[in-house]
Fold these 2 entries.
Entry 1:
Amino acid sequence: MKVDIEKRILAANDEIAASNRALFAAHGVFVLDLMASPGAGKTSTILATIAALRNRYAIAVIEGDIASKVDAEKVRAHGIPAVQINTGGACHLESAMIRRAVDTLDLDALDLIIIENVGNLVCPSDFDLGENAKVMILSVPEGHDKPYKYPNIFQVSEAVILNKYDTMGVFDFDEEEFRDVVRSLNGQVPVFPVSATKGEGVDAWAGWLAGRIDAAKETDAR
Amino acid sequence: MKVDIEKRILAANDEIAASNRALFAAHGVFVLDLMASPGAGKTSTILATIAALRNRYAIAVIEGDIASKVDAEKVRAHGIPAVQINTGGACHLESAMIRRAVDTLDLDALDLIIIENVGNLVCPSDFDLGENAKVMILSVPEGHDKPYKYPNIFQVSEAVILNKYDTMGVFDFDEEEFRDVVRSLNGQVPVFPVSATKGEGVDAWAGWLAGRIDAAKETDAR
């Protein structure tokens, strides 16, 4: 019974996600779903990405959290529109929440929406939000063994950001093993070493994202 | 409708949890449900706790993970019985999973079972497993703002372990603000600074746990 219920919830979510996706394409907006554990550095990675790309694209952010509005305030302090979603206990964002948040934004004025999902390596990976790409962050202090334990999120992500890379010397993180396991789960997925709070490694990641945005714009314009 | 379904799932879980709790009391076994984000150091905290308490109590571990059996193998390498539960995608343990795992253990020969829940600051806090106490770990690299974003897990925990305390100098962690917010959410809950991999701070935490185990034994024996 429980599996049937889950299937019905996912099917309802997928339907709204497909409608979101059509809406985003019609307005030429690229949507990124950024997923990670609590404290992996989602907000600081978003701020670093904004700094790298704001002269090239008009950006807005949708912040997903169980509670609080601290992340949306951090983003707005940089002059970027931000919508806070409080899930009130739910462990992930769903496509209907994104639709309500998007309805408060001027899509014609935007090129890129970054969605910060709830801090969680499990549930967000199951839910299509209508995004163009799912990307995940793993932070070095979490350890190189995480792909063994949370394989699904590594499989659905189109890029992996390895954040807090500057703390590699402090933790016992085997980067070679990490890259091997990630590759075994998800072929040629790129891994970007980043220190978001220091701005290091952001250019390579932002360059990949810009490439995806420009490619989607060409497809949408056809 | 979704809320009703969630209520039914939680009610079914609570019923088995109550039965687990009676079983544990009948056998004089104390059960700890340890919750944390991925990579906060659950397994290393368990190993440090075992080292501190194994001469005093007979201990077994139940390891919960989406996939893999690496944690159970780490525990068994120290000569401690360990049962691995793979949830196959589910973001938390449930009381029925614990019952099946417990059925493989000799309860009369045990004083303490430590359950390592799935790495997640959200879902595990909603599910009673029949444990004597829920305890959570926050690790310093995750940041001092986490109680704002994940209040429920701080509210249901009877102790908070602040792990990777030795990296306090590397990260911008405001311990005073952290303790203030935790106190506002959960009165006099103790916060134990620990560096599990170095064994630092473990005595205070293990002392608290031993106090709880001994108190429960007295109650069970009445």
Entry 2:
Amino acid sequence: MKVIVIGGVAAGPKAASRINRLCAEAEVTIIEKGELLSYAGCGLPYYISGQVKDSKELMSTPVGTVRDSAFFKNVKNANVLNHTEATAIHRKQKTVTVKNRAGETQDLPYDKLVLATGAESAVPPIPGVELGNIYNLKDLHDADAIKATLAEHKAVNAVIVGGGLIGVEVAEAFHEMGCRISIVEFLPQILGMMDPEMAVLVEKHFEAKGVKILTSTRVTEFAGNGRVEKVITDQGELPADLVLLATGVRPAAKLAQDAGLEIGPTRAIAVTDRMQTSDPDIYAVGDCAEKKNMITGKAAYVPLGSTANKEGRVAANAICGVEDSFPGILGSAICKVFEYSVARTGLSEKEARDAGYDVVTCLAPAPDKPHFMPGARLLFFKLIADRTTRKLLGAQATGPGGADRRIDIAAMALTAGMTVDQLANADLVYAPPFSPAVDNIITAANILRNKIEGRMDGITPGEVLTMLERREDFTLLDVRSPAEREQMRIDGTVDIPLGALRGRLDEIDRSKPVVAFCKISLRGYEAALILKKAGFSDVKVMDGGILMWPGKLIKG
Amino acid sequence: MKVIVIGGVAAGPKAASRINRLCAEAEVTIIEKGELLSYAGCGLPYYISGQVKDSKELMSTPVGTVRDSAFFKNVKNANVLNHTEATAIHRKQKTVTVKNRAGETQDLPYDKLVLATGAESAVPPIPGVELGNIYNLKDLHDADAIKATLAEHKAVNAVIVGGGLIGVEVAEAFHEMGCRISIVEFLPQILGMMDPEMAVLVEKHFEAKGVKILTSTRVTEFAGNGRVEKVITDQGELPADLVLLATGVRPAAKLAQDAGLEIGPTRAIAVTDRMQTSDPDIYAVGDCAEKKNMITGKAAYVPLGSTANKEGRVAANAICGVEDSFPGILGSAICKVFEYSVARTGLSEKEARDAGYDVVTCLAPAPDKPHFMPGARLLFFKLIADRTTRKLLGAQATGPGGADRRIDIAAMALTAGMTVDQLANADLVYAPPFSPAVDNIITAANILRNKIEGRMDGITPGEVLTMLERREDFTLLDVRSPAEREQMRIDGTVDIPLGALRGRLDEIDRSKPVVAFCKISLRGYEAALILKKAGFSDVKVMDGGILMWPGKLIKG
């Protein structure tokens, strides 16, 4: 059996190695356009920042063996043709035309073909985009060029166009290298994977680090003499010694499309759950292949190295007759932004509403360990569920606290189709150095249960801000202690600490709606219950408390 | 509705607060033997070590309000009788006899009664156990007494009797305080919750920190003049200025037993999944109540604050007519031992075998992030599954890497009854600062799939060590590089690096069984496949590689 794998970075080598392990008789050839094989593209931002000292580390095994052609031949028993491009697939003849560095072409026969052609950077058609010092970050050559530019300048003005995952990861790397950084994002928020109230927390953290965030801003031109000098936007100009274009990637599906293979609605190669394309002898894996969202069952495109590895294994199994299938993805994603983690899984609130669910959400900011432990760090947490079925739909987290762990717990709950009730009773590990006795995600699940069962009427801080701005007639009830109010407060509140509330109900106008809050709105919830018991009819709790207030805070 | 809650530490106050929130008409009274309410007993080791500076922090809300009687009255609308002991339950009359500090007794009527009487330390009947400076760690008074003893002595010789969770947590606290520490454990390993090959890694870490571990050692006497001076064991004597008895806890179920309530096989109070005892008006929650293991369906006793909180909520819901049930526990547990985390969930290998499963296990040591990231730390990981159903049964992890996250992922998989295949395809969050592209738990799940499908015959390092000790005739094949062997190696191996193996097959005796390994046995697995392809018939892979070798290592 002859197997050709086109693409030597992640999913391709994975499929090749696994095929070799499963089928003694297979003869596997990897075709790679570039020089490098199986390197960790996700590590490039950390190579730019200098955390990863030597680029060789990105293409080595954990014990330091470089994964070159000899390695693949000797260890994985796969032939590698690098500096070789696959230019056409002839499905009837079952051959692939390849062209080497010298321009020589040949047709290679296959029994099974694996497409792992990856993704390519979307270069926006902005005037001046061809100027020097404007980079993508698609491979090690780009990273080396960026490093050289950084080394050449002092106090570099760096502009990052696009506030998605790559944009924010590189922003941190540029910051480490001493750059003055602006992130220009065309949408009203960075990190479109997050709901707006979570993204704004990340934007604030960036700004606290001196990174300028320009949202709802469109780049109209790159100007400069030979190399970029300024970035012109519809909101003004930015000086620029260096520009990173991080405006997203798209599946590299042209070879498949030219061969008449079915392309999906996301413009990636359509595949079955065995990674088979519309031609049963051709498989597609990794960033060129379309994914299925496990919750909605709909096509999705979330190119990630973690998914690529799983798909490579599934395709190899299919080719070698081992039963397996890929269940799809949840859109789980994470990135680091200075001291913050930013993570999500499942559907965002907007995605859930668009998909027609009866959405209920909660915001639960809290320390990620018992408050008395010195290592406790604040975690902002959001859960999204369906009111009718009580099933979890999505989770988002950010802040200095441990987001990865809670989002992975949520991902597992989503995989299993769990309700918020099952999640609330999950037996998670507990000890003070690791988590509070009632973990953040369990608290959030319990808030959702209270909301679904009608015990708690939530209102988002954003909605409350709008009510204040519209000068609506309501009581915003702050039940925190005077000491807490000293530190920060919202203008225009009625202030009664929770412990005194039962005795001071007369101070609250019964004819007006009441919105109660505290630091995180646990006491706000208790206050609302006290008011309801006392006969107040319109009482809401502000989700997430003052910690998630998007408006102005008065301090001191 | 009159509700009496006996016990004011964790599950009791939780139930009381929730009842107050759910039922406007409930009149809730908390009876507490001691002075203190709702304090974080799990935080005591960190109070001893000084990480928690002020004991008030252990009994405060996150914003610093001390949870005293006034707090419970004003905020939670619950009456508190502290320094008051419940001495008898009269089920026919529905009253509880209580006795206050002055010795006055009265009978309090109840409609519903919640028992949250907790656990008590098991004090072993060892001669001399009544000597001074021998402590339990059941409450803040003990912690204060221990702190006073530590302050009084210089270079304290501390002996901890019992190597369970509390023993190891306090060992670290004593180390922080500059003590010379011995842990004396009657069983052949510390941390009985872990399988032996995992526990031994923790023992080695303790020893590297200078903590003496004496397993299979029985204390026969505490000797001293007024206060303890030495601990006499069946293996010799230990000098001792301070002894901590950490020989386990048992449910405080006497009050329930005297009232004729059903006691379960674990000697805890038998309860339904709504936390109801054999008397439908009496509930039991927290450390005095029996648990159910979710996997086996059998009675279990794992007293933890995390479970107590969930049970308190479920009992409150039941009392107030809100539908809910507690599904049981997985035996999830975690502790910190210096730089190591130690965590487990589900069944241990032994428990799984005892329960009659067709057990398959794997050991997967690997960095918890891509090896090129500076923050990558080694994590030793073990998965346990059922060969027939392919369902996950348990997971264990230790080492400097992130154990909590992976064990919680496993806990969720266990809750859902997932197979190793579902686990292997889980869409976990991925970015280099957080995890490798193929997460440790996914690698482990894939190893189990390979084993279940007969592609990999594993043998544990312990079994290989026994074979060597018995001088069995087999080839122990080390496929690591010469540079790796320089650092550490096992005596008596045949050494052929994986990359050279295909060309050097002649060097291996085909008539003998072969056991292949590398650092973590990924290359060992590939070597085994190469040998099998080449016609070798008896080839096994040593699980976990040299990193989990329990025997002697030759270094340099």
